[in-house]
Write a structure and sequence with these properties.
The chain is α+β, with helices and mostly antiparallel strands. It has two helices and six strands; from the N terminus they run H-E-E-H-E-E-E-E. The chain has helices spanning 10-16, 63-81, and strands spanning 28-33, 37-43, 89-101, 110-119, 126-135, 138-151. The protein has a six-stranded antiparallel beta sheet, with helices on one face. A hairpin with a 3-residue loop joins strand 1 (28-33) and strand 2 (37-43). The chain is globular and about 45 Å long. The active site is at 54. It catalyses: a (3R)-hydroxyacyl-[ACP] = a (2E)-enoyl-[ACP] + H2O. One of its GO terms (biological process) is fatty acid biosynthetic process.
Length: 154
């Protein structure tokens, strides 16, 4: 049933990821192709708390939060592919490689995160992804990252 989901709105995202404001960094996930690929959307707004100090007068989204947004997109992709809504799934970074930042991201930008699975299998705990973040088609960041999927047991 849910393996057929091609997109996830904010309500579905919150059923998959444990993150909440101010650390929920993806607003919508679209173009979900099972556990192979997906595209996350983040509407960057001045209301986000990191802009108070990064940097006053010149608000720039921290690069680490862009990488986190890519990882959250991957988590939603996995969650929809394997029907993990309401499952208490946690995903932990294990490794970040080939991380590069290409342009500033700030309020008013729409950050798009294109994620592809490099390695992972149904039922597997360890996954590797490749992510590319863009704004208006211009490269903003890229990284490969490895994560562990952990289903919490009662």
């Amino acid at each position: 049933m849910t393996a057929e989901l091609k997109s996830a709105d904010i309500q579905m995202i919150q059923r998959i990821l444990p993150h909440r404001y101010p650390f929920l960094l993806v607003d919508k996930v679209v173009d979900i192709d099972g556990y192979k690929s997906a595209r996350g959307i983040k509407n960057v707004t001045m209301n986000e708390p990191h802009f108070q100090g990064h940097f006053p007068g010149t608000p720039i989204m921290p690069g680490v939060t862009i990488v986190e947004a890519m990882a959250q997109t991957a988590g939603v992709m996995i969650g929809t592919a394997f029907d993990m809504m309401d499952s208490d799934m946690l995903i932990y970074f294990m490794n970040i490689d080939k991380c590069k930042f290409r342009r500033k991201v700030g309020p008013g930008d729409v950050l798009e995160m294109n994620i592809e699975t490099v390695r992972g299998k149904p039922g597997g705990k360890i996954w590797k992804f490749s992510g590319k973040a863009t704004v208006d088609g211009e490269a903003a960041a890229e990284a490969e990252f490895t994560a562990m999927v952990d289903l919490q047991k009662d």
